Amino acid sequence: MVRVKICGIMDQASAWAAVEAGADAIGFVFTSSKREIAPDAAKAIIQSLPPYVTTVGVFVDEPLHRLNDLANYCRLDLIQLHGDESPVYCEHVDRPVVKTIKVKEASDLQLISAYKHVTRALLLDAYVAGEAGGTGHKLPWHLAVRAHEQGTIILAGGLDARNVEEAILATRPFAVDVSSGVETDGRKDQHKMLAFVQQARAASRHLAIL
């Protein structure tokens, strides 16, 4: 079963809509972004969630001590790094790490070998100059296929309910990560979240019989 993470959660209603849609994980952005959330707000949402929903904190080049303090305060399960954090930095994060690699061309995949032994998984996102993520741009799927051979891969970048099934069947990732693709006018849309999860589940069923 391909797991689904819905990122950029900013309020309790969106969090619960994501959970009720069937998301396995939800993400909170703790960096300068239109989806940034305050630690107090994230902590309150996390405390309200049912069991077995993985909570993920998204950070960009955060001082290590502050990241670990925030993760502990909010009781995050996983840390997702979207900046220039080194493998050594990843080793000193107190919680399991997913490291993002921004992919534009094949040479970008060379970074996987440096991080795969100090992370739980690698998240592949589209490269957009000056942007850390959540842009809605699609990464080259044929490169994601090559990355799949090197470790546990999470696919992001330009996914929505219209293309997630095709993306999963083409790349066979461990999980998919979506943010802007389930939004309407910059806010999480419960109907789009449900449709996204349903299409991801349909893809998983197809993979099971291939």
Give a verbal description of the structure.
The chain has 210 residues and is α/β, with parallel strands linked by helices. It has a single domain (3-208), classed as TIM Barrel. The chain is 36% helix and 20% strand. The chain is built from eight helices and ten strands. The protein has helices at residues 12-21, 39-48, 64-74, 87-91, 112-115, 141-148, 164-171, 190-209; strands spanning 3-6, 25-29, 54-59, 78-81, 97-103, 121-126, 153-155, 175-178, 183-184, 187-188. The strands form two sheets. It has an eight-stranded parallel beta barrel with strand order 1-2-3-4-5-6-7-8, surrounded by four helices. Strands 9-10 form a two-stranded antiparallel ribbon. Helix 4 (87-91) links the parallel strand 4 (78-81) and strand 5. The two termini are 13 Å apart. Pathway: Amino-acid biosynthesis; L-tryptophan biosynthesis; L-tryptophan from chorismate: step 3/5. Residues 4-199 form the N-(5'phosphoribosyl) anthranilate isomerase (PRAI) domain.
Task: Offer a few descriptive terms.
Aldolase_TIM, alpha/beta, 210 residues, eight-stranded parallel β-barrel
